[in-house]
UniProtKB/TrEMBL annotation:
Transmembrane segments: 7-29, 336-358
Name assigned to this protein: GHKL domain-containing protein
Occurrences of domain Histidine kinase/HSP90-like ATPase (ranges): 470-580
Keywords, alphabetical: Kinase, Membrane, Phosphoprotein, Transferase, Transmembrane, Transmembrane helix
Biological source species: Paenibacillus phytorum
């Protein structure tokens, strides 16, 4: 019996699909977990940077304010050395005073209508500042100081009769960055401006500032490619430009779009992700490609926190960390190779297992077929042996009847003839079944029924000269296995309850066979299909190995026939029907 190749292909395809689905799901799930883990690590790194920068900025602001207090002291010293009338103070005098005080310079500022300008200065470039209206909150601070002798705006450092802004690019362009302090107590007709180069503050920032923190973080994390501090107010917009006394535009230190770090790995989606992190106030991580390589960008918003100390003057910003996503890709590729090896090994194992299973099924069916074929040959031999035996013994029967008749034993003769006629009729009934193979099978089952004390009845009609589309060996398989199944079942009962009935007839161009036998009263026909599976049996043991009904079902389906099972009045009936042609 051959293996159904269609079943093999379908099973193999299902196994392959399940493997592909399972491993694809595992691959994407692992990728998601690794991406999430990397995002969380970048968020943690951003939090550490944020904390370090906050501490650094508080320290630098404290240093700024110390410098601011010193500038106020220097301004008081300058007031004591200068005439209260600006017209009586010379630039040369301010140069000498700056040298004595150890600062970079002095400027005296006065009103000019509704504006404020530099009137005298030790720095020639400062003298070019003829207007400060465009200085923003700086101009507001100057005005409040001149009008009220005190500054009330939120920005900058405020002391008695004194205000100092953040270290900034001078409007005069006299230096890169300077720290300015402004003093006015109403005793002069000018505002004293004292300034120093902010190299100390910058040096402090170089030691513990944001850029240093970024460099150390990059050095300790090889997979981090870039860290940026994007201004939470001006990034993505055109910052306000101021012009120095020479007309050269400059941008305030705290208006720079990038406050610290570098911003070279750019993308058109950066601004959207930047805004999303600010609006949602939570980290945003995205996977992109840069120069053909996959990268992970994490945006983390750092708002201005609630003011805790007087030296806090933070600007909100977004920390952007760019990490090399290829580390994840390498991990995934390694796992993919491992998975591929596992898939190949498992596929080979599955194929071998499927082959062995089908081989076992085939062998079992081949065993059943061989047994049926041997039984068929034995049955035919037995039937012909019976017929030959009757012909061989015919002379003996005649001589016996003659002897009884010659001795006048008429009653004994009649009894002997009756027994002989019953035996001949029994054989004739089998022969009259009309189908040699079925007749031979019934002959064999009669002998088996006599040995096992089974009341075996049969009735076949309309099979004479029947042209079937079924092989005789398959007819024997079907009917023989049904009868064997019935015999095995009734052997559970006492001898007087063992009864099996077989009927066969032709109907609507179909051969119909029914086999009926008693069944256990507790038997339930709930699982119809289970009865026809290989290995199913209600017997504790037996020679048929649970193959009989599965062979019947396979052969019936092969010939496009039908099989019905019913239970009524304590009996189970198997009714099969196969086409004649």
């Amino acid at each position: 019996m051959r293996i159904n190749t269609k079943v093999i292909y379908v099973t193999f395809a299902i196994v392959i699909l399940l493997l592909v689905f399972n491993n694809t799901s595992y691959y994407w799930f692992t990728k998601s977990l690794l991406t999430q883990a990397l995002s969380e690590r970048m968020e943690s790194t951003a939090s550490q940077i944020r904390t370090s920068i906050e501490q650094s900025e508080e320290g630098s602001f404290f240093v700024e304010d110390l410098i601011g207090e010193n500038l106020r002291s220097v301004a008081l010293f300058a007031k004591s050395q200068l005439d209260p009338d600006i017209e009586k103070v010379t630039n040369e005098q301010l140069i000498e005073l700056a040298r004595q005080a150890g600062v970079d310079g002095f400027s005296l500022m006065k009103r000019n209508g509704d504006d404020i300008m530099v009137g005298k200065s030790s720095e020639p470039k400062e003298l070019q500042i003829r207007s400060t209206k465009t200085f923003g909150y700086w101009f507001t601070a100057f005005s409040q100081l001149l009008d009220n002798h005190q500054v009330t705006i939120a920005e900058g450092q405020k002391l008695l009769n004194f205000w100092s802004g953040i270290y900034e690019v001078p409007a005069s362009g006299s230096s890169n960055v300077s720290k300015f302090g402004y003093f006015y107590d109403g005793s002069t007709n000018y505002l004293i401006c004292v300034f120093v180069n902010a190299d100390k503050i910058q040096k402090f920032k170089q030691i513990v500032g944001a850029d240093t923190i970024v460099k150390k973080t990059l050095a300790s994390n090889p997979d981090i490619m870039e860290i940026s501090g994007l201004n939470g107010i001006t990034f993505g917009t055109k910052p306000i430009e101021y012009k120095d006394s020479s007309g050269v535009p400059f941008i305030s230190v705290y208006d720079r779009p990038v406050l610290f770090g570098t911003y070279n790995i750019t993308s058109t989606k950066d601004l959207d992700n930047y805004k999303e992190s600010i609006q949602e106030n939570k980290p945003v991580s995205v996977v992109e490609r840069w120069n053909g390589k996959p990268i992970l960008k994490t945006f983390m918003y750092v708002p201005v926190k609630e003011k805790l100390t007087e030296v806090q003057r933070e600007v909100p910003y977004v920390i952007t960390i760019v990490s090399d996503y290829q580390t994840i890709q390498r991990t995934l590729n390694k796992q993919l190779v491992q998975l591929t090896v596992l898939i190949v090994l498992f596929t080979i194992f599955s194929c071998v297992l499927i082959y062995l299973v089908f081989r076992f099924i085939t062998k079992s069916r081949e065993t059943a077929v061989q047994s049926t074929q041997e039984m068929y040959i034995q049955n035919v031999d037995l039937m012909f042996a019976t017929i030959r035996s009757q012909r061989h013994d015919f002379l003996n029967h005649v001589q016996t009847m003659y002897a009884l008749l010659s001795k006048g034993k008429k009653e004994d003769q009649m009894k002997y003839m009756k027994e002989l006629i019953e035996e001949i009729n029994e054989v004739n009934d089998i022969i009259r079944i009309g189908h040699p193979a079925i007749a031979a099978l019934i002959q064999a089952k009669i002998a088996l029924a006599m040995r096992t004390k089974i009341d075996f009845n049969y009735h076949f009609t309309g099979l004479e000269g029947l042209s079937l589309g079924v092989k005789s060996v398959d007819i024997v398989k079907i009917i023989g296995n049904l009868i064997d199944n019935a015999f095995d079942e009734v052997n559970k009962f006492p001898p007087d309850e063992r009864e099996v009935m077989v009927n066969g007839w032709s109907e609507s161009n179909h051969l119909t066979i029914s086999v009926t036998n008693p069944v256990d009263p507790e038997f339930q026909l709930d699982d119809y299909n289970k009865m026809f599976t290989i290995g199913y049996s209600t017997k504790g043991g037996g020679e048929h190995q649970g193959l009989g009904l599965s062979v019947v079902k396979e052969r019936i389906e092969f010939y496009k026939g039908t099989i019905e099972v019913s239970v009524a009045d304590g009996c189970i009936c198997f009714k099969i029907s196969v086409p004649m042609q």
